[in-house]
Specification:
By secondary structure, the chain is α+β, with helices and mostly antiparallel strands. The chain has two helices and six strands; from the N terminus they run H-E-E-E-H-E-E-E. A five-stranded mixed beta barrel has the order 1-2-3-5-4. The radius of gyration is 17 Å and the shape is globular.
């Protein structure tokens, strides 16, 4: 009984630590909005957030998207983020990683999806 209590406490601590480490949106500059249009070089539809690696005229960017459950519920299926698709993303640049953007919305095949 005592071992299971400690194991449960340790598991809860690990989960809360992961949750605390996860949402660090302050590392993005919300006072500055960027709009990038380009072609998807790679994508991930995974937790905690999806992503697209984008070839844009401004260079190569890593774009952080919403969690897959939110993208799915708002009409952005995994298949829409295929390699070679042309997309436009609007969002906030990372404060220290110059080629990373947190997307607020994405436009794929003429359809704009709000991600936040």
């Amino acid at each position: 009984m005592r071992t299971s209590t400690w194991a449960g406490a340790l598991a809860a601590l690990c989960l809360s630590g992961g949750a605390l480490a996860h949402h660090g949106w302050s590392s993005y500059d919300s006072s500055r909005t960027l709009t990038l249009t380009g072609v998807i070089r790679a994508s991930g539809y995974e937790n905690p957030h999806g992503f697209v690696d984008l070839d844009a005229k401004e260079g190569q960017w890593h774009v952080v998207l919403a969690p897959p459950s939110r993208m799915e519920s708002r009409g952005l299926p995994k298949a829409a983020l295929k390699e070679g698709a042309k997309v436009t993303v609007e969002g906030y640049p990372h404060r220290t990683t110059q080629d990373e953007l947190r997307a607020e919305r994405i436009t794929v095949e003429g359809k704009t999806v709000e991600l936040r």
